[in-house]
What we know:
CATH architecture of the largest domain in chain A: 3-Layer(aba) Sandwich
Helix content of chain A: 25-40%
Strand order of the largest sheet of chain A: 3-2-1-4-5-6-7-8
Mean pLDDT of chain A: 79
Strand order of the largest sheet of chain B: 3-2-1-4-5-6-9-10
Largest sheet of chain A: 8 strands, mixed
Oligomer: heterodimer
Order of helices and strands of chain B: HHEHEHHEHEHEEEEHHHHHEE
Mean pLDDT of chain B: 91
Number of helices of chain B: 12
CATH superfamily of the largest domain in chain B: NAD(P)-binding Rossmann-like Domain
Low-confidence stretches of chain B: 1-5
Shape of chain B: globular
Strand content of chain A: 5-15%
Distance between the termini of chain B: 49 Å
Number of domains of chain B: 2
Largest interface: A-B, 71 and 79 residues
Helix content of chain B: 40-55%
Largest sheet of chain B: 8 strands, mixed
Structural class of chain B: alpha/beta
CATH topology of the largest domain in chain A: Rossmann fold
Structural class of chain A: alpha/beta
Radius of gyration of chain B: 20 Å
CATH class of the largest domain in chain B: Alpha Beta
Strand content of chain B: 15-25%
CATH class of the largest domain in chain A: Alpha Beta
Amino acid sequence: MASEEQLSAIKGAKVLMVGAGGIGCELLKTLALSGFEDIHIIDMDTIEVSNLNRQFLFRQKHVGQSKAKVAREAVLKFRPHIKITPYHANVKDPEFNVDFFKQFNVVLNGLDNLDARRHVNRLCLASGVPLVESGTTGFLGQVTVHVKGKTECYECQSKPAPKTYPVCTITSTPTKFVHCIVWAKDLLFAKLFGNKNQENDLNVRSTDASSSSEHSEDVFERRADEDFEQYGRRIYDHVFGYNIEVALRNEETWKNRNKPRPVYTRDVLPLRPVGQNGNKDKASIGDPSSVSAMASLGLKNPQDLWSLKENSEVFLEALRLFFLKREKEIGQLGFDKDDQLAVEFVTSAANIRAASFEIPLHSLFEAKGIAGNIVHAVATTNAIIAGLIVLEAIKVLQNDVKSYRMTYCLEHPSRKMLLMPVEPFEPNKSCYVCSETPLTLEISTHRSKLRDFVEKIVKAKLGMSLPLIMHGVALLYEVGDDLEEDEVANYAANLDKVLSELPSPVTGGTILTVEDLQQELKCSINIKHREEFDEEKEPDGMVLSGWTPALAAEKTKTSDNGPSSSNASQTVPLESEDNDEIEIILKDPEILAAGKKRKSSDISVAVDSEIFSVTSEMLAKRKVEEDDSHNDIVMVDGNLDPNKKKRVQ
Amino acid sequence: MGKVGEELTEQETAIYDRQIRVWGVDAQRRLSKSHIFVSGLKGTVIEFCKNIVLAGVGSLTLNDDRLVTEELLSANFLVPPDENVTRGKSLAELCCESLKDFNPMVSVSVEKGDLANFDVEFFQKFDAVVISCCSLLTKKSVNAKCRNLPRRIAFYTVECRDSCGEIFVDLQNYSYSKKKKEETIECQLQYPSFEEAIAVPWRSLPKRTSKLYFAMRVLERFEVLEKRNLQDNSADDLPNVLKLRKELCEAQCINESQIPVPLLQRLLAARVEFPPVCAIIGGVLGQEVIKAISGKGDPLKNFFLFDAMDGKGIIEDISG
Lengths: 649, 320
């Protein structure tokens, strides 16, 4: 039961919830039951079938409708007299500016992607509104509190980097199924159905230049005299047969590796006459979005493991159906895990490649999870996390700083705890977001263009959406609706110039100021010129540094700054085997870099969770609460000792 | 739609996609064939019901004949506070209507009657029994009935008082397999009954045992001695409760400071449920029942205790 003081804090509060998904539905319900009366909720998503197992405010009949709006209606049924204001919009939209944020007493995040989380963090810092942040993955979850000047901000700790793979592993030497998926999705699918102008490493690099030029770009174009079957077989033979043979010629590569086996349609599907697929007509029924190669081939169970032959049939059929039923979309398709035909194509292509490299094959269900970066999600963890968010929100409203906790929901107990509270850290003094510490960028000022800097650093690394870049008083770049035509032209021209040739040249020693007016975030970047970069290790061709991840600094801090508990330095043992899977997040680097509206292939689409940021290392370094034995002293006697943490209100 | 043999239907696969990725198809299949009984539909149990209906159990049977009061609905998101809707219907009937709508693939029904009077055979048809809001005697007797059946029935009791909650688990002899690295290990757990567990002498428990565990036992005992309804206490009872604390601590040879006064005060004053705690306890309970049915994951043994004041969610093994 909430105390009188808690109740009055709750009743007077105006809260903003960002996200009405898995955590959001639970959170809105728990807020309403707890007595909150003025709740605003932003979510840009619409309801999907795969949400229904946990987003309990939604029903089958709501599929396709706004999450924020349907969630409001559902909660008003059991709490009709409270005020819920829904926004079916992106939290990054300009209307949600600092002034908008300022009207709230606390912001509660139930988001599913890093980009939006960083954006909200910055607006909370700029508006001085406390933030309670959360995330879940399977049975794991966490709730953290971020209050400007009192605790660390969301970005004080560097987040685990999304997993990326060296280009050559994907193009030539896959060893895991995920490599085949990335190849099938980002290279083959993109090549055949995506934007033709995008760079693509699909054709293996061969030392034998003459032979690869013979199979030039137009291999992937359908010839005028080809039917879909012939075209499909030619593509198949090219990517699974010919390309592998080309790769095999590079003997150096295979010295210490198993050689792949080229696969040709004539070996796998020798007898299939052209255009004689029995169930073909079935596929012509229904709308294009429900077109399915599995359906037309009579394959029912997505959990089944298909043979190489079945995969090959799915491959050819999916390709055929794309051209037959969805020709208009070709050239602009991006992979979308909710696009059945795309998933079928990618699954089959990845499996054929896996077979060629003697990597175990996977079912469509598994392949879809890997390709779509589908984060595991269950209702129970979301419910627990939402409950913990409300507990922290109430403390924040009462300004009960000493009681703030970050709480981790664990799958296996650690020191008997399944829910483990940890005291929040102080702000990281070298955090570029909340403490304006300058950053350092090593970059080749004669080779890198302003565009590279904007895309790879300002948008991807710093997470700014409307950046303004200044060198001294000279404006190099700016985005906005209110620019004059000549300004727009100027900035566009600047984007294509290398840094040292800008009107106000950027060279080693230059200090650039980068600012996002919407986020009210400003930071300085010291430019350091460097000529060479390692293609594999530093694929961006530039290295940003300067904000030290907080962990190293905190380790020393806890011992002198923490309460005088005998356990202050004790670490938390955590089984790391389970946490490994958290890290398997293949975020599409291009999409991250774009930092624009979420695309369908973005990790964030239908997942309610996050790039989970608890790693065993992090937990181990975080200090756990003092022992029970200290509690009763505090609780019974009140808190007289200033060194002890005050626990009681 | 119906279930075709051992395979999940297309609809099941589509709706349960995200959770199948957590616990696998086998576990989902086992869930869809399981039958759950709950009694005492206050906030925590409501949360639990939501969780397992969403997860896709085969059936859920609700028992709670009480008529709706404002207090009973304080942490209930299933029933609208509208007399035109609630008039003349029991809490179980109202919750049933709403839960059915959550997941059309789960069969939700009501069993009328007093929990204490259900016989052994009644419990036979369930895989898990979750009871709340009933006397200590009833808890013990239902637990004993479940243990008397040839088939193992997972038994749980759950109570929330103020911002604290407690779950007790009895899985009898439970074996499950767990994956460690590449290997699969067979694990065996032996659970005591509720009666056996709470009879474990306090002095034999580790010194660091959660204070909430002892405090809950004092209150439970107090209600039995005073012939009180569960949680029908007030702050005025403190002197008598402190007297009981002294007696119990002396008899059990533990220091009274193991059961702090402010904690007892909070538990005594509890009138209305605290929804965030209901969500947390109901979530943990949901997870435990899913684990027990699916045979996936380490089940907790045998108490889970949560206090919002310090934020710790602790597992205690109290098996003597």
